[in-house]
Sequence to fold (373 residues):
Amino acid sequence: MKKISNIVFSAFAFAAVGCASTTDTADAPLKDVFDGKFMIGSAVNAHQIAGHDSLALDIVKKHFNTIVAENVMKSGEIHPLKDAYNWAPADSFVNFGCDNGMFVVGHCLVWHSQLAPWFPLDADGKYVCADTLRCRMRDHIHAVVGRYKGKVKGWDVVNEAIVEDGSYRKSPFYEILGEEFIPLAFEYAHEADPDAELYINDYGMNVAGRRDTYVKIVNDLKSRGLRIDGIGMQAHIGMDYPDLAEFEESLQAFASTGCKVMITELDMSALPTVSRSANVADMVDMKQVVDPYPDGLPAEVSDEWNARMLDFMRLLLRNSDNISRVNVWGVEDGCSWKNNFPVRGRTDYPLFFGRDYQMKPFLGTLSAELAKK
Ligand code: 9MR
Fold:
């Protein structure tokens, strides 16, 4: 049998789930459940906003008071060519949020991934000079933030700039402008909408190297008098990562800068952790191991998942004085990016609502706990 050495099988040692929901709180809108703690929301995609999934939109309207654009505001989508913007999907997203009285978050202005291909390149396909990139960044940020001024209340200005060891990611922005690309992006965003909140956002924020660098960056922005309101901890987590104590340590370190902390892209994979470099050809033979629950999550795994998510949410609730917003990265399991990452075509169960559009049990438990207080 072929071997997959880079699948990590974790030994889950979970306590009894204790996730029974109660009848009086089970149907409460989540925005009421978490009222006074933090805003609660989700990423929405173009398909949902276009009205092709009315059940998903019903969930969003009933339960969430904040939304973020999963893809439609990324430069590759909204500004695909130097002289062409694709506004319609983002307009629909913003109008939906405003019509429903939500705190609308824009994602994201400066990111190496889903970057419009033309953005950092000249006509010969080489990197542009620093002046040109500064102008392009300013034009892009002014156009996008300016269009939604007063409607989009907060922006992920810079996304995923730092790698695990705390050094800067060697993105085109960094290669061309060095560390200054971050302050510049914040300066341009503030010029474009002085009332908008501005955030810096990344994944793996539990890791000490990344944590320390973000604390430095935020303190530096503040010492220069630049606006920065929040630090986004994405929180794409799994059953065996991250260490929750480490995550909490980062949350508190970020709060100590005086910024709000926000959990911006929460999801928790229920599947075995597979490294990105896993050999997909090998995995075809190992489908059952890599993609073990195509027909539904077994009750014991669902219990483990709910127990860990409950622990994670309790962590957030005990830190709620420092958290302004929790956004889940998708509405229901079927639409999650985790079904295609790090392996395409798996069936994952990472979100607050299942493919049947029903709320997961841990939320009933939390509702009941919060109702008692
Ligand atoms: O969920 C998004 C997925 O639909 C896109 O294909 C993917 C492209 O990179 O981006 C996903 O969202 C990412 C987010 O914008 C930034 N943090 C990581 C998210 C998951 O990759």
Observations:
- The CA atoms of residues 130 and 177 lie 6 Å apart.
